[in-house]
Amino acid sequence: MRPGATTDLLIVDGDLAAGPAPAGTESVDLGGRAVIAGLADHHVHLLALAASWSSVDLSPSCLDEAGGLGAALRAGRARQPDGWIRGFGYDVTGSGALDRRELDGLGIGPVRVQDRTGILWVLDSRGLDELLPADPRLWPDGVQRDASGAATGVLVRLDRWLRERVAAPVPDLGAVGGWLASRGVTSVTDAGADNGETELALLAAAGLPQRVVAMVRDLHVAAPPGIEVGPIKVLLDDDRLPDIDDLAGRIEAAHAHGRAVAVHCVTEVQVALALAAGVDRRDRIEHGSVVSDGGLAALARAGPTIVTQPGLVATRGDRYLADHDPSDLAALHRLRSFLDAGLRVAASSDAPYGPADPWIGLAAAVDRRTASGALFGGDEAVDRRTALRLLAGDPHDPGTPRLLAAGEPADLVILDTEWGATTPQPSVLATLRSGRLIAGRLP
Ligand SMILES: [Zn+2]
Q1: pLDDT tens track for 6-32
Q2: How far apart are CA 195 and CA 177, in angstroms?
């Protein structure tokens, strides 16, 4: 149907259907309110997001408010007298390097602090003593050591190792699912690079109101009922890039099984490596945060879907503007130029590492404004309809927007506003998944 048209929507057995309505069909007058396709978050870390809700936010703005790292963590300890204190969102570059000694000085252990990218954890000595084997030869790779061989407290890419060892309450995924539904999200793709049977079982047990697709760490991970298995997630780190033949082998194996890969690429070299290793139209590039003009042309030739995070322009844009040479900024967090190059593009939150609210990302895709209001890469802005389409894709083909058409699942968001009046962050009146109300109320 034509966008903005006033029309009837018929839902039969959870799907949109063509008329006439069967006898006994219940009718609801939406009073001219706008109806859009249910939003999909194509890249979100649900377990980390749920954990962050019972943790201490150590992002720069929260540290300013709390009066510094020590004050924020001590306040966390006051709220939670026992067990591990978990901090997240700490900006190692902006707020200062961190190691065990600094955390020891607070005397509130055991404590663990995740940096804002999710790559590093920093533990205090009490925490390290609880987790690390006495014999350093048994420590996993990723335990950073000082010149004397002692652990500094920094753990690199040991998220899963840590999760398996810290006695922490099961994160409240239900609260996350309910809140996302209230923001209009009907489908989520969990992007956990470590996702195996344990993680998928947790996601399945939560009974989220959304359709849940989970990326997995390898081909052998099977999905429990209620979860769909998505692409194989491939994590790249500049300081330990895989051998290109190994990577090509993984991609080839995935393709041979009819599966896609989703390659985490936040630097130019990672994009180049992914392409050289055989990423193609079946696959996804996650983030694509830095893409030069040459990189853009190469991506357009290979044709993977780009799954980007417009919301990071809002939350990190001021930092980028301060840290980067103006000539480098054009390559950062592109959006419109991906579309102009003919690439399929989808939007996502990367929460908790980006803002979880899809409307923050949508607003930033349209206005390209940072938190302070500065314009960031204004040429990369898209109009509101395009922005909505970036969140309307099927999770298994995120760059191709679903239409509100007969035969499609009735995953719908009813906005408390008329179509033309859509404000950047309109209020969501009701969210339906397969025709069933999962948040809000009908008028
Ligand atoms: Zn991510």
Answers
A1: 889 999 999 999 989 999 999 999 998
A2: 18
| Residue 354 CA, ligand 1 centroid: distance in Å | 9
13 CA to centre of own chain: 31
Q: How far is the CA of 287 from the centre of ligand 1 (A)?
A: 8
How far, in Å, is the centroid of ligand 1 from the Cα of 44?
A: 6
pLDDT at 422 over 60: no
Would you state the pLDDT for residue 51? 87
Distance (Å) from CA 118 to ligand 1 centroid? 8
The domains found in the chain, sorted by start residue, are 39-47+172-409 (3.20.20.140), 55-165 (3.10.310)
Burial label, 270 (beta-carbon count in 10 A; 0-12, 13-18, 19+): buried
Q: How far is the CA of 46 from the centre of ligand 1 (A)?
A: 10
Q: Is residue 215 within 8 Å of 190, Cβ to Cβ?
A: yes
| Ligand 1 midpoint to CA 411 (Å) | 24
Pull the structure tokens for residue 394. Answer: 């099927």
**Å from CA of 107 to ligand 1 middle:** 32
Average pLDDT, the chain: 93
Whether the bond into 20 is cis, omega within 30 of 0: yes
| Span 249-266, average pLDDT | 97
Rg (CA), the chain: 22
Cα–ligand 1 centroid distance for 131 (angstroms): 26
- Tell me how far the alpha carbon of residue 74 lies from the centroid of ligand 1, in angstroms: 29
Whole-number Å distance, alpha carbon 215 to ligand 1 midpoint, is: 11
CA of 43 to the centre of ligand 1 (A): 6
198 neighbors 230 (Cβ within 8 angstroms): no
The string of pLDDT tens digits covering residues 159-218 is: 889 988 987 667 889 999 999 999 999 999 999 999 999 999 999 999 999 999 999 999
* Amino acid at residue number 366: V
